[in-house]
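Methods — Computational structure assignment.
A single polypeptide chain was analysed. Its primary sequence is given first, followed by the predicted tertiary structure written as structure tokens.
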Amino acid sequence: MVQSTEKPVAKLPLWKRPAVWLGAWFVAMPLWCELFLRLSSSSAKQPFFTVGIPLTVLLTAAIFGLFYGLSLLLPAKWRYGVLTAIVGFCTLVCMVQTVYFEIFDMYFVLFSARGLGDAIGDYDSVMWINIANRTAYLLAEVAPFVLWCVFGWRRMKPVKPGKRKSGMTVVVSAALYAVFFVILAVLPRGDLTPWHLYWNALEINPSVRNFGALNSLRLDVKYQLFGGAVENVTDGPTDLPEMSKSDKSEPTPTATGTAPTATTPATPAFVAKDQVMNLDFAALAKSESNADLKMLDEYFAGIKPSKTNEYTGMFKGKNVIMVTAESFCSFAVDKELTPTLWKMAHEGLEFTNYYTPIWGVSTLDGEYANLTGTFPKSGVWSMWRARGNNLYFTLGNVAKRAGYTTIAYHNGTYDYYDRHESHFNLGYDKWIAVNSGLEMPHDTWPNSDIELIDVTTGDYMTADKPFSVYYLTISGHAPNTFDGSAMAEKHEDEVANLPYSAEVRGYVAANLELEGAMKLLLERLQAAGKLDDTLIVLAADHYPYGLSEASLSEMYGAGYDKNFEIYHNTLMVYNPQFTHKVISKPCYAVDILPTALNLLGEEYDSRLLMGSDILSDSPGLVVFVNRSWITDYGRYNSVTGVFTPNEGVTVPDGYVDSVNAVVSKKFTVSSLILDKDYYGTLFGPTKNHP
């Protein structure tokens, strides 16, 4: 018998085998992109090192390992194309998120894709500036994909299709997935924890920090198609614990030898009443068959209402003008440079502890919070989603039922964010904006707020009935550079001597246009004899996140607080009749609507809004999108889990857990009000333009 002289072929070490090497490369590419996205958006508010790093690695390796394992069943020519398409798409997602976060301080959600074309067309200068700011990160993210396109096919050739290799890879991926779920299960399960984010609801910023942008996109798709779990909002506390007040002893009168003198009868004391409507939520709950609506009825039945106060009805039957000011912040208010804004902010009601949280969808969510008194829902355009809902308590709808003239104006494009579908439903009979009835004297970027006021006041000031008017301004929009903003360029000479960098001077210059607009508005009201009879409310949509980090540090101070104080802002509730009063209660955007309704003396139920009347004696609360909060007792940082009490305050046991529960319920209830058209179930379907 002749023995073979051929030597058996030695098996290559595992790490040298083409299938393993290629799979490792494929899985490493999305992880590489996630790394640089994380680096580009890390800050004190978004720390780099968190439990999200191992979770992202495990989940991404499991998912992309599964993709690779299944691809091993395909011929090489098909496999390369499929894997290249997957990794190319993933690279693009990370690059888009890098630029989007740089612009908006938030990550991109799938729902916003409906407006991506408009955003690129309208704000392309902002986009290119921020692409330039993130060029190094973008090049790093795209580099592995370029190498894959050049060398990947060559490495793919030796890898033959095989069920055994595919099965082994799938098993390894499943094992990684199992480890991920074990870690997920042993971690805490509170609000915005990885467990909550994976199973219950999409909150895009913490989701990306915990699972990465690619897995968050997958979760985004899941929540868009199937929704998330709904928290039971009837368990546990629903109202903030009220701060106890120490007893105040009255001074004991000293005896005198003189007879008592006659006194003028005292004016009857003001008697506060619950700010409620004739709604029996307990009875409604008993008759409701839908589980979510029944739970909302039970929730509102347990809410303590705010009370009327000495300001209630001060402007009953009077006019109201609401202004949402683009990218406005307190830095733009100066006694010498912007005297009108200063007067509106500091003469009369002065709110020293007001905040403008940033929500998920930039200006649109800022409007939603300002105008509806509820939280926007993460992952969707809440204003657009509510276009067919009954938004019963908005200033436009309340005024419309009272027979007012109601008009809304915007010196930007009329259909941006599909506002032409949503803003009629706020109760405004007319939505007048660029390309929809608004004739601006000059077409610039951004357009002039002064010109907006100039060409619109004649529509309503000559009417013989009261008016409710809404303005959405745009002059303060980024970029705030003299070559990127027509409004900054217009006022460049007025800020030339300010001791700031060019971008900060540009921001101040752009807001001089808002100053001029408010000055003209007050002058027109005065000339028409309507100033004393008009309540004016001005609030920002968000802080000026379009500014560079260097400019923000210059404005807020080096090492500024990015979790709280970046959102500290100025609220203007103005009328010449107000006597000066400093209000230090913590308050924020969703408090605007109930405060205005109280001043107007319009019927509303304070239990049904997530905010509360700032002028009432209800406890102060500010909630941020990451579930951090501020109350009369102190502030809680959800990122660090640290509560810092105010000086001299004794915090009751269990206070932080109690407030966390209340805050979590407010987010859930706000989403259910939107998704279930809850006001529509109470008051009937909307009768506004669809």
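Note: DSSP finds 24 helices and 16 strands in the chain.
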